[in-house]
Write a structure and sequence with these properties.
Length: 370
């Protein structure tokens, strides 16, 4: 009767309350009180998670997650901490609409809405998640310089920033292969690539450890190619990088789906298993990355696009005011994994440079200074 007492015109609730509507209406009629109208609609369900409060409470109380705001949870506090914007959530809800039929919405749709939103307003930064050392052998020792980088190509009003460059750099380990396959347009022995915003470099040598793993790559740079100008030469690959002398250490938390099954509650009931048995052991990966120094000035909740990687957010819980590395929750990687590409014979030539495994597609990730 609280709806009637408070003067609620329309009481909106999910479909399980439909059976109670006759009693709801009868009480108001018999008591002669203000008539509120009850309208039922289907609840919003997302793949690879559970929406039941009872199940979510178990996840928290049994320490399967760190709390109600754990970025793998479907709660508003968790989505906010992971970097989802209110605009992206509203956009998804508008696309899904309100209906009376129970449906399950792909989590990928929410991620798509977030990408569209952040692409327009998230500043770009360069960070290396899996570093491989590069030495520019013909660059003067002890010298450094700065290059101008665009903050957001979608919004010229966001201006530019400077990125420091030095003799020793770090690139993504996936951006180098000693024996590359066809259509691998990144760094390899004898191959020239463009360092984003900087120079053209050519790989001349590699250094390996006792196990034969490449631990260092030696390159030469073209002094006439400042800003990545190829001077008419055809250079297909452009890779991001970070200066060894200036990089800020960064703790990066990579989040994947909390459950291995797209419908964990249904799958558990059909197989007579507990839904917690379907929790993915790989839903969280914590790594230490290296980022350009501009990220050291980020504030909690700031969102960025790491060039060629994905979207990341400075953690609103674990961010510390001391200089160092931010904590980010990507909105999952946008780059290709060549190990995954080569394992699939059905991948087309065009997709080979852009395809990623599912866990590296695109949502937000959190950053924490270390």
């Amino acid at each position: 009767m609280s709806d009637s007492i408070e003067g609620i015109t329309h009481s909106l609730c999910t479909l399980e309350f439909e059976d109670h509507r006759p009693l709801y209406d009868w009480c108001q009629e018999v008591l002669g009180v203000y008539r509120s109208r009850q309208i039922e609609f289907a609840r919003l369900n997302l793949t690879h998670t559970v929406m039941s409060k009872r199940m979510l409470r178990r996840l928290v109380e049994e320490s399967h997650v760190s709390g109600w705001d754990d970025p793998r949870m479907p709660t508003i506090s968790a989505l906010r901490r992971r970097g989802f914007t209110p605009e992206s959530i509203r956009d998804m809800c508008e696309r899904v609409g309100v209906a009376r039929r129970n449906t399950v919405t792909e989590l990928a749709l929410l991620e798509h809405c977030l990408r569209e939103d952040l692409n327009r307003r998230a500043p770009r930064r360069m960070a290396v998640l899996n570093p491989l050392k590069v030495v520019i052998t013909n660059y003067p020792e002890g010298q450094s310089e700065c290059f101008v980088a665009i903050n957001n190509p979608e919004d010229a009003d966001m201006g530019t920033r400077t990125v420091p460059f030095s003799r020793e750099l770090y690139i993504e380990r996936d951006d180098f292969m000693e024996d590359p396959p066809r259509r691998f347009y990144r760094l390899a022995p004898g191959r020239e690539v463009r360092l984003r915003y900087a120079w053209l470099v050519t790989c001349t040598d590699v250094v390996k450890d006792a196990d034969g793993t490449v631990v260092e790559v030696h390159c030469t740079y073209d002094p006439d190619s400042r800003g990545g100008n190829s001077d008419g030469r055809r250079v297909q690959g452009t890779i991001h990088w970070g200066s060894s002398a200036h990089a800020a250490p960064l703790e990066v938390r990579l989040y994947d789906n909390l459950f291995t099954d797209p419908a964990p509650a249904t799958a558990a009931s059909e197989s007579d298993r507990d839904f917690t048995d379907l929790i993915s052991p790989d839903s969280l990966e914590v790594i230490t990355a290296l980022a350009e120094p501009a990220l050291a000035g980020a504030n909690p909740g700031d969102r960025y696009q790491f060039e060629r990687l994905g979207y990341f957010c400075a953690d609103i819980v674990d961010w510390t005011p001391t200089p160092g590395a931010p904590v980010s929750k990507p909105t999952r990687h946008l780059r290709a994994s060549w190990a995954a590409v080569q394992s699939s014979a059905r991948v087309t030539a065009v997709r080979r440079t852009t395809m990623l495994p599912r866990r590296h597609l695109c949502t937000t990730t959190t950053l924490r200074r270390i």
